[in-house]
Amino acid sequence: MAVYTEVFDDDVSAFLADYDIGRLRVLKGIAEGVENSNYLLITDQAPYILTLYERRVDPADLPFFLGLLRHLAARGLPCPQPVPGRDGEPLRTLGGRPAALVTFLEGAWARRPEVSHCAQLGDALARLHLAGLDYPLRRANSLALAGWHGLFEAVREAADGVIPGLRALVETELAFLDAHWPAGLPAGVIHADLFPDNVFFLDGTLSGVIDFYFACNDFLAYDLAVCLNAWCFEGEREFNATKAHHMISRYQKHRPLSDAEFAALPLLARGAALRFLLTRLYDWLHTPPGALVRPKDPQEYVHKLRFHQAIGGAGAYGVTR
Ligand SMILES: Nc1ncnc2c1ncn2[C@@H]1O[C@H](COP(=O)(O)OP(=O)(O)O)[C@@H](O)[C@H]1O
Ligand SMILES: N[C@@H](CCOP(=O)(O)O)C(=O)O
């Protein structure tokens, strides 16, 4: 359960005095998510999500994230909308943290994504990328290569105690990616954490995309690589090329990949696997003792990284040029 900062009915009732959205009826910590503290907040008018932004969110980035939600929704992508207070400002403070309310999206995430979910995800990802092209704000990816090095410095000494041999694996992989990371691929706004638990479906149809708090400017194809890792494995080790084929094909109906992007996919997938391996390892070692959160297992991303290291090219993802 991701609640790092506890807030209580009285605090939230006082907080709501700055809004025109009714009186508090229900406040419930949400038993999912990893990064921020989230509450379901129901007033006598509507349900909302109350988010208190935690350690990985730089408050200076919040206008980028909240503005992006408005920008994408205006271009037809179903995503939560920031709710402004009476003064027109969606960003406030609660429990000593930066906080905001967003609209509640109906639907549920796919616990066992099927081919049809992956295909719809490919659609939505391409629509997100196209809709983001004219977003005027910029945010560098703090979890790109330099950020992976920084994370690794913080876990290097403890890595082998979590998974034997992990330190050498990561050192070798970082050196490889430093030498081979592509340059000049098409870039734009990416979600950067589009896992199944951040995509809602209603009656089998994609109904919403949430959790834009890693969104940034980076290679568009890197976002596809994140999704290949998150959506196209059965369990931790078995890659499902049919799912990947449908995801990438539907993506390409809106935004065809260039030859350079296609060739770079295995590298980007290695980078994406390393990124989640490192944040999970960091969280495994640094989750605050009292936090109501279950850190995710880094081992899963060791298997995924090894898969991408072993393939001969992007053909392994079920697509050809
Ligand atoms: N706008 C929303 N509408 C409905 N449920 C939401 C919304 N935003 C978040 N949630 C719920 O909160 C959970 C955690 O949200 P998420 O943004 O993934 O948290 P975190 O930033 O901590 O990773 C989601 O899995 C979902 O159940
Ligand atoms: N998707 C990341 C963890 C971030 O959690 P989320 O709830 O924001 O998706 C992972 O699986 O490591």
Automatic annotation (TrEMBL):
Record-listed E.C. numbers: 2.7.1.39
Residues making up the signal peptide according to the UniProt record: none
EC top class named in words: transferase
Gene3D superfamilies in the record: 3.90.1200.10, Phosphorylase Kinase, domain 1
Any one Gene Ontology molecular-function term assigned to this protein's record: homoserine kinase activity
Catalysed reactions, as listed in the record: L-homoserine + ATP = O-phospho-L-homoserine + ADP + H(+)
BP terms from Gene Ontology: threonine biosynthetic process
The protein's annotated pathway: Amino-acid biosynthesis; L-threonine biosynthesis; L-threonine from L-aspartate: step 4/5
Presence of keyword Amino-acid biosynthesis: yes
Keywords: Amino-acid biosynthesis, ATP-binding, Kinase, Nucleotide-binding, Threonine biosynthesis, Transferase
The keyword Amino-acid biosynthesis belongs to this UniProt entry's keyword annotation: yes
Aminoglycoside phosphotransferase domain ranges (all copies): 27-255
Domain of life: Bacteria
Similarity field: Belongs to the pseudomonas-type ThrB family.
Name used for this protein in its record: Homoserine kinase
Protein source organism: Pararhodospirillum oryzae
Biological classification of the source: Bacteria, Pseudomonadati, Pseudomonadota, Alphaproteobacteria, Rhodospirillales
Gene field: thrB
